[in-house]
Design a protein that fits this description.
Layout (H helix, E strand, L loop, with lengths): L1 H29 L5 H33 L7 H10 L1 H10 L4 H19 L8 E6 L25 H12 L2 E5 L2 H11 L3 E6 L1 H11 L4 E5 L14 H12 L4
Parallel strand pairs: 1-2, 1-3, 3-4
Helix pairs in contact: 1-2, 1-4, 1-5, 2-3, 5-8, 6-9
The structure holds iron/sulfur cluster (SF4).
The site of iron/sulfur cluster has 13 residues, from helix 6.
C-alpha cells in the first residue's frame, strides 16, 4: 500500500490545488465589478466546479475500491476521469515536490493494477491480448519477432520464448511492439476485452491511459542492462496476470 499512497497522495494534492485555484479566481476576480466578464467568470467557475465534483467522486470511488477490494461499476466513468484527466497535473505537482517521475509512474501502475483486480472480470482467452516490449528480445537475436512472433525459435536466450509458450498454452493473443503506435494498432485490430502489458513503468502508464476504459494489468519489466536493452520479466508474474483474466475460462 505504501507505494500506492504516493499516487493517491498526489491525486489528493492535485484536487486541493485545483480547489485553491478556484477559490483564488473567485476572490480575485468575481467580486470585482467587471461587467460582462463577471458573468463569463461565473460560467467558467461553475464548469470547473462541476469537473472538480466529478473527479472528487471518482477519487472517492478509487479509495473505496482499493480499501474494500470491490469493483464500483457505477463509478467507473468518474474514476476513469480522475485517473486520466488529473495525471498530467499529478506529474507536474510531483516535479514541483521533486518526486522522481518513475516513482510516481510505479505507484500509478500499482493503483491501476489493484483497481483492475477488484473487477474480477473473467474473459475468454481469445479476448485477451498480451503486449510485450521489443526490448525483451536479446540484442544478439536476429529473428524478426515483431513482424511474426512465429519467427522466435524459443531458444531460451531471452524471456520472449517462455512468454510465447505461456500464450500458446492459454490460447491468448500476443503482440511484440516496438512502440505505442504498433501497440495501439494491435488493440484496434484484435479488439481485446482486456490486456496484460509488459513494459517499463513509463510505457505502462502511457499504455494504461491510452486504453482507458479497457482493463490493463501491467507487469513491469526489469532493466539489469539499462533502459530499453535486454530487459527481463518474471514469467510467473506474467502467468499470474494471464490467469487473472482467463482462469475460469480455460
Ligand atoms: S527466445 Fe531465442 S529466438 Fe526467441 S526472441 Fe529470444 S533469443 Fe530470439
Amino acid at each position: 500500500m505504501i507505494r500506492k499512497r504516493l499516487y493517491l497522495g498526489l491525486l489528493a494534492g492535485t484536487m486541493l490545488f485545483l480547489s485553491g485555484m478556484l477559490v483564488y479566481i473567485w476572490l480575485s476576480f468575481f467580486r470585482q465589478d467587471t461587467g460582462a466578464l463577471r458573468y463569463l467568470l461565473f460560467v467558467i467557475v461553475m464548469l470547473i466546479l462541476a469537473g472538480l465534483t466529478i473527479v472528487v467522486i471518482g477519487f472517492l470511488g478509487i479509495i473505496f475500491s482499493l480499501l474494500a477490494e470491490k469493483d464500483l461499476a457505477i463509478l467507473h466513468k468518474p474514476m476513469n476521469y480522475t485517473f486520466s484527466l488529473l495525471y498530467p497535473i499529478v506529474i507536474w505537482l510531483g516535479k514541483l515536490l521533486k518526486i522522481a517521475q518513475d516513482r510516481i509512474q510505479c505507484s500509478f501502475v500499482e493503483v491501476n493494477n489493484q483497481l483492475v483486480r477488484a473487477q474480477r472480470s473473467k474473459i475468454k482467452p481469445e479476448k485477451l491480448l498480451v503486449l510485450l516490449p521489443h526490448c525483451l528480445q536479446t540484442a544478439e537475436c536476429t529473428k524478426r519477432i515483431t513482424i511474426r512472433t512465429e519467427n522466435c525459435v524459443r531458444c531460451g536466450n531471452c524471456p520472449v520464448g517462455g512468454i510465447l509458450d505461456l500464450c500458446d498454452y492459454y490460447g491468448v493473443h500476443v503482440k511484440i511492439a516496438t512502440g505505442g503506435t504498433i501497440a495501439r494498432d494491435a488493440v484496434k485490430k484484435l479488439k481485446p476485452q482486456a490486456i496484460v502489458a509488459v513494459a517499463c513503468e513509463r510505457d505502462l502508464t502511457s499504455g494504461i491511459l491510452d486504453c482507458i476504459p479497457l482493463p490493463v494489468l501491467g507487469v513491469p519489466n526489469t532493466k539489469p542492462n539499462g533502459p530499453c536493452f535486454n530487459t527481463l520479466v518474471n514469467l510467473t508474474d506474467v502467468e499470474k496476470a494471464i490467469l487473472f483474466f482467463v482462469a475460469e475460462a480455460v
